[in-house]
């Protein structure tokens, strides 16, 4: 009797290799771009300029942490500008300021972050209960936030005098401002949520295959609301950080951060269609965008070109990311 044995085929590694190459792309691009600008401008490679790049990236990094979770689900969040404006006015009127006698300190900061969380929760509820697409739901919430901020502004700019909050942007630890260390803590927190909590894993799963997750018995809607609430909390903290930088609460505190955060996340490798990327990817994207922006200024390119450059980067990054999917599905949505 002859016994035959079958050898199992070796597992395919092409997809893993492709994923590893995609993950390595943004860090390699960051190193290359930094090296190019360092060679072109001695001022760019100075330690003082590196400090400036990292400190300038702090607020954007926090906002990008929030928007990354939404993008991982395959949704879009355009509420950052309105939420940051409302949170900025809230904190400026609750800490020591020139408009009233309030001096709630840390509790004023906490209230601003919780307000951002509430706005995010509102976006999530509009999505899951009213079936409003995330694009329109968050755009509407942003308008509500800007309206609330305008009402609180009341034509008189509130200037803060709270020493602790103002110190976030002024005082330094190991050469970097407190804002930078707050951003580092937010990135670490975001990564821990993404890596070790059910919320983070389900955000990935919703973006990758929501139908499969639903068929497995998971109630998807509460997790969607929770993701938007988490993102709103990050936006609220971003508004507080901008207030620390400016020393005042402004309705326009979050202007431009929504598009810049989406740019950074996409450049870092987080797909707009969901299911790929993460907080660390987006953090690399933030540094890449900030290095590019700073480098263009250092080599003499007009700042007016920066918005156009960001737009080109987003289109190129999205196109490069969807090429494999387009080849596989032969469909363009």
Q: Could you explain the architecture of this structure?
A:
There is one protein chain. Helices cover 71% and strands 1% of the residues. By secondary structure, it is mainly alpha-helical. The protein has a domain at 59-255 and 272-277. It has a two-stranded antiparallel ribbon. Helix 1 (14-40) runs parallel beside helix 12. The longest helix has 27 residues, at 14-40. The radius of gyration is 22 Å and the shape is globular. It starts with 13 loop residues before the first helix and ends with a helix. Mean pLDDT is 84; it is low at 1-19 and 327-333.
Portion in strands: under 5%
**What is the chain-wise order of helices and strands?**
HHHHHHHEEHHHHHH
- The stretches of 5 or more residues where confidence is low (pLDDT under 50) are 1-19, 327-333
Q: What is the number of E strands?
A: 2
> How would a crystallographer describe the biggest sheet?
2 strands, antiparallel
Kindly name the structural category. mainly alpha
Radius of gyration: 22 Å
Write the layout of secondary structure elements.
Layout: H1 14-40, H2 47-56, H3 58-72, H4 80-94, H5 106-128, H6 134-153, H7 163-170, E1 172-173, E2 176-177, H8 178-196, H9 198-215, H10 220-246, H11 257-268, H12 279-298, H13 306-329
Antiparallel strand pairs: 1-2
Features:
disordered C terminus, 13 helices, 333 residues, mainly alpha, ABC_transp_permease
Question: What's the gist of this structure?
Answer:
The chain has a domain of 203 residues.
